[in-house]
Write a structure and sequence with these properties.
Mean pLDDT: 87
Strand content: 5-15%
Shape: globular
Number of helices: 8
Low-confidence stretches: 1-11
Length: about 200
């Protein structure tokens, strides 16, 4: 049975999610899917979407407003117990919060940085120090929530992963939050309270 986080909203049935093996299947498919893209807008969107997916599942931030509002100025370094970490300052569905970014997400942040011609001339550290107004997940400053949802649905259909057979419902980008929660509770010693606070559900 998967761990459940407290939610003070309207009571609903279990939401669609991915098992670990299903998520691995999705990642393998998306890597090939990106490489198979023709040069141009399709390739740009798929590359950014893949990085977006990997950051969502590595941080637990909400797809949509919470992620789309992130600018590089909301990403900062901090030091704790002699070690340097990155954090996101996010705001969206719930009140503002700061969350630590794991090493897995940093790899994809660097890819987004390198793919953006407006900031590619800066080193990654310079970008963080500068506090750029550039958005992380937008193209030409435009919110890609709807486009990402549509393109991600196409990827799920093509990989035969659209329907969660346990719930008989369609998966979406939001399903990645449950993957993050499950992997974090399974692989770390974090309490459900601290995880819920990190994810903005308490």
């Amino acid at each position: 049975q998967l761990p459940q986080l407290r939610n003070n909203g309207v009571k609903t049935g279990r939401r669609p999610d991915f098992t670990y093996d299903e998520f691995v299947q999705l990642v393998k498919f998306m890597r090939k899917w990106v490489k198979a893209s023709r040069a141009g807008h399709t390739l740009v969107v798929r590359k950014l979407l893949f990085n977006y997916v990997m950051i969502l599942v590595s941080t637990g931030i909400r797809a949509g407003t919470e992620a789309m509002n992130l600018k590089w100025k909301h990403v900062r370094y901090f030091t704790a117990e002699g070690q340097q970490f990155l954090s996101f300052n996010v705001s969206g569905k719930t009140k503002h919060r700061e969350l630590t970014v794991g090493y897995r997400a940093i790899r994809y942040l660097k890819r987004i940085h390198q793919d953006n011609p407006a900031i590619a001339h800066l080193s990654f550290d310079e970008l963080i120090d500068e506090g750029s107004e550039e958005y992380l997940f937008r193209l030409d400053g435009r919110d890609k929530t709807t486009d990402f949802g549509r393109v991600f649905k196409g990827a799920l259909e093509a990989s035969n992963l659209l329907i969660d057979k346990r719930t008989d419902t369609k998966r979406s980008l939001y399903s990645l939050r449950h993957v993050y929660a499950t992997m974090t509770l399974t692989n770390t010693n974090i309490s459900t309270y601290l995880l819920a606070k990190h994810m903005g559900t308490c």
